[in-house]
Design brief:
Radius of gyration: 20 Å
CATH superfamily of the largest domain: Hexapeptide repeat proteins
Number of strands: 26
CATH architecture of the largest domain: 3 Solenoid
Strand content: 25-35%
Number of helices: 1
Helix content: under 10%
Shape: globular
CATH class of the largest domain: Mainly Beta
Bound molecules: zinc ion
CATH topology of the largest domain: UDP N-Acetylglucosamine Acyltransferase, domain 1
Largest sheet: 9 strands, mixed
Structural class: mainly beta
Strand order of the largest sheet: 1-4-7-10-13-16-19-21-22
Distance between the termini: 19 Å
Number of domains: 2
C-alpha cells in the first residue's frame, strides 16, 4: 500500500501494512507509517507520517494521530480522540469516550449510536502514556506530559506534568527528554521565586514555573527558538526508515 497523502518534502517512503491488519479504505495513512499484525484502523481515521501502530491496536473511526507517534501493542483509541505529533502510547493504553456508559436506555431498549454523547480526549505533542493507563473522557494530556503505567487519568494533565496512580495525581514535572525535573540551583532562582525554577538532571534544560499556565515551561534566551531546535532532533530519532529522494 502506497500513500502520497501527507507527504513531506524531500522524504519518500511507503506505508507498511501487515497482511493481517485491517485498514479501512476510508482511512488516511501517512508515508512511512507501519501498521502491524491484527491492528484495525477504522474509516475516517487519519494517521500522519512515520507512525508505528503496534500489534492488535484499535483505531476507531475519525481518530486523528499526528506524525512520528508510536502506539504500542494492544492500544485502544476510541472515537473522538485527537493525538498530536510525537505521542507515545504504551502497551494496552485505552483512550475512552463515554462519560456515563450504558448499554440500554431507561425503557430497557438497547442504546443506538444516537443515544449517547462522545466526550473527546486530546493528547498533545510529545506526551507519553505508560502501559495499561486508562484515560477518561474529556481529559487533555498536555505537551510532553508523562502518565505513569497503570494510571487512571480523570482530570487534565498540564504540559510537562508527571502523573500516576488511581486516580492519577500530579507528582512532578518532566523534561522533553523524559527525565524528572529537580529544583534548580541559585543561579536560576530569582529572589522572589526561589521555588519556581527547575532543571533537567539529564540534559540540564532549565524550566520555570509559570503561574498563568499552572505548569512549568522551558527557559531559553528566546522561547521561540527552543522548539525548532528540539524538533529536528526528535524527528531524527523516531524516523529511522526515511530516506532522501
Ligand atoms: Zn532533559
Amino acid at each position: 500500500m502506497t500513500s502520497t497523502i501527507h507527504s513531506t518534502p524531500a522524504v519518500q517512503t511507503t506505508t507498511t501494512v501487515h497482511p493481517t491488519a485491517e485498514v479501512s479504505q476510508h482511512a488516511i495513512i501517512g508515508p512511512g507509517t507501519k501498521i502491524w499484525h491484527q491492528a484495525q484502523v477504522r474509516e475516517g481515521a487519519m494517521i500522519g507520517a512515520n507512525c508505528i501502530i503496534g500489534k492488535g491496536a484499535y483505531i476507531d473511526f475519525g481518530v486523528s494521530i499526528g506524525t512520528n507517534s508510536k502506539l504500542q501493542n494492544g492500544v485502544f483509541v476510541y472515537h473522538g480522540a485527537t493525538i498530536e505529533e510525537g505521542v507515545f502510547l504504551g502497551p494496552g493504553v485505552i483512550l475512552t469516550n463515554d462519560r456515563s456508559p450504558r448499554a440500554i436506555n431507561v425503557d430497557g431498549t438497547q442504546k443506538s449510536d444516537n443515544d449517547w454523547q462522545v466526550t473527546p480526549i486530546r493528547v498533545m505533542r510529545g506526551a507519553s502514556i505508560g502501559a495499561r493507563a486508562v484515560i477518561l473522557p474529556g481529559v487533555t494530556i498536555g505537551e510532553y506530559a508523562m502518565v505513569g503505567a497503570g494510571a487512571v487519568v480523570t482530570r487534565h494533565v498540564p504540559a510537562y506534568g508527571l502523573v500516576y496512580g488511581n486516580p492519577a495525581r500530579l507528582h512532578g514535572h518532566v523534561c522533553h527528554c523524559g527525565a524528572v525535573l529537580s529544583r534548580a540551583g541559585d543561579e536560576h532562582a530569582g529572589p522572589s521565586h526561589a521555588d519556581s525554577y527547575w532543571e533537567c538532571p539529564s540534559c540540564h534544560q532549565p524550566f520555570e514555573f509559570r503561574a498563568e499556565l499552572e505548569t512549568v515551561q522551558p527557559v531559553s534566551d528566546s522561547g521561540d527558538e527552543l522548539m525548532p531546535m528540539l524538533m529536528p532532533l526528535y524527528a531524527a530519532s523516531t524516523s529511522p526508515t526515511t530516506s532522501r529522494s
